[in-house]
Design a protein that fits this description.
two-stranded antiparallel ribbon; five-stranded parallel beta sheet; 2 domains; 7 strands; alpha/beta; single chain; elongated
């Protein structure tokens, strides 16, 4: 049902209008930021089109008929989900299903990831070394798309992260898009539309998706996580940057603990408590992803401090730390432009630094020159 979708009211209205007009194109390109529900909307659209008990007034799927359930499980004969896969264990022929070529461990992981996707259409499938949408996946579409379908049914093929198609895969898909059967629909989703061949883009009707509003993300989080504090939910919604995937990754990370360490680090830095700084750096530097999150949190903190110093509170991210932010700008003199550039440079350099500790100590030296205790204050 469309209620399963977070935000995207404009896109849903467009798709309903397309359906009610009876002029469904045979190829669509859903594009927009990663994690905003492009796959989820494609799945709902496929359910609505093939629903056995469709709500004719609201143009909605019932979610309880056999067709809706099988499409939701990504196991319908009228719905195929295509994604990037690792290289196969052998060369494949024209008639070999791509799944059958996977190594045993890859096949098990693929099925497990597909199950997660069926339970949560916003889930981003993660399979190591799955860098490309393979030619045999497109050949599988070609085999299935020309088979006779039941009356009043439409075969829907969702190619997720379509920008991962190889040139060979894209050329093969182009041949299908040039002469698709009338009972078929191909939906490509991507966050990088400019990475697709213009010939593919030109054969599809394009629908741009919107970032999800903070309000919609907040409502989603409140419904999904009853035990998370409302102020923390506001923080998550603000740093999600309109993406459910980014929001989920933040919640699953150690964000709150890293944020406390970041604040402690700043206080220790201006107080010249180098043993404390060393302990924090040792904790943070174990993984590059942890370093990136630490640096981003510092960036958010200084961004909030600068906004607050200018007399505004509306766009502050760390809304649950407002008093600490006020205390920070009262006691510390910060060269915001220099600090921001330093941290942004470090975020850019994380991947190239072999030694994470060295990067963070370099950061400490630079920030020490850019953050000072105000003459009438003492850090606490």
């Amino acid at each position: 049902m469309w209620n399963n979708i977070i935000g995207q009211k404009r896109v849903i209205t467009i798709l309903k209008n397309i359906y009610s007009s009876g002029k469904i194109a045979q190829g669509y390109l859903f594009y927009g930021k990663e994690g905003i529900g492009k796959d989820a909307v494609a799945i709902e659209f496929a359910k609505m089109i093939n629903c056995e008990n469709q709500d004719k007034n609201n143009l909605d799927a019932c979610d309880i008929c056999r067709s809706c359930k099988s499409i939701q499980k990504l196991s319908s004969t009228y719905f195929s989900f295509i994604t990037a896969l690792p290289a196969g264990k052998r060369e494949t022929g024209e008639d070999t299903h791509p799944f059958l070529t996977l190594k045993d461990e890859d096949a098990k992981l693929y099925l497990a990831e597909l199950e997660k996707k069926s339970l949560d259409p916003y889930y981003k499938i993660n399979i190591p070394n799955a860098n490309n949408i393979r030619i045999d996946s497109i050949r599988q579409i070609k085999r299935e798309i020309y088979l006779t379908a039941q009356a009043n049914k439409k075969k829907v093929f969702l190619i997720s992260e379509a920008d991962k198609m190889t040139l060979e895969s894209a050329n093969s898909l182009l041949k299908i898009l040039e002469e698709p059967p009338g009972n078929s629909l191909i939906i490509l989703t991507t966050s990088r539309p400019n990475s697709l061949p213009p010939t593919i883009v030109g054969r599809c009707q394009k629908i741009q998706f919107d970032d999800i509003s903070e309000k919609d993300i907040e409502i989603h989080l409140k419904n999904k996580f009853k035990d998370i504090d409302k102020e923390i939910i506001k923080v998550y919604a603000k740093i999600a940057d309109g993406s459910i995937n980014k929001c989920s990754n933040i919640i699953q990370s150690d964000f709150l603990n890293i944020r406390e360490m970041a604040i402690d680090y700043l206080v220790a830095l201006v107080q010249r408590r180098y043993l404390k700084i060393g302990d924090i750096i040792e904790n943070i530097s174990s993984k590059k992803e942890k370093i990136k999150e630490f640096l981003l949190i510092l960036l958010y903190w200084f961004r909030d401090s600068m906004i607050l110093e200018n007399g505004s509170t509306e766009r502050i991210i760390n809304v649950d730390k407002l008093e600490r932010l006020k205390n920070f700008i009262k006691k510390f003199d910060v060269k915001y432009f220099a600090v921001t550039k330093t941290i942004e440079d470090m975020i850019y350099d994380v991947e190239s630094y072999i030694n994470g500790e060295l990067l963070l100590y370099t950061l400490t030296i630079r920030l020490t020159e850019q953050i000072k205790i105000k003459s009438s204050s003492h850090a606490t």
